[in-house]
Amino acid sequence: MLNASWSQLSGPAPATLINASSAFTPVLFTDAGTYVFQLTASDGELSSTDTVTVTVNAEPSLTGASLGVALGSPGPLAVGGTETLIATLTDAANHPIVDFPLEVDITGANAQSGTAITDAAGMARFTYKGSNVGTDVLGATTRGSTQLTSSC
Predict the structure, then answer these.
(1) Which of 144, 148, 120 is nearest to 29 (CA)?
(2) Residues 37 and 81 in one domain
(3) Fewer CB within 10 Å, N side or C side of the chain?
(4) pTM for the model
């Protein structure tokens, strides 16, 4: 079995490694700049380490941007079923804003939170299981320096 471990060696601010023990992991950045990460991999007998440099450009402006949310399957949701929040982020000219982190919050009977990243269409999806009886409110907030919030 291969064991992997990511760590941040340098950068202008701490970065969030979504799954630091996976060979491949998304990373969230709060500041633009150059970051250096180290990956150590071991199979129990042999071990290897390498570094990667990542340059993060400044985030796009959210001035005039729009964040919309919708449900993948409008309720009611059967207990034990899954629901998907679909968030769409567009700029002032209605063009998609890509690779932008969104914080997803679910309040109510199945409270939880997580992160989703917009795709090439400016859309991000977050799916969860509704294990408890009750009402949930789903919302998304941009994780940039300017915050937009939307809920359904």
Answers:
(1) 144
(2) no
(3) N
(4) 0.65
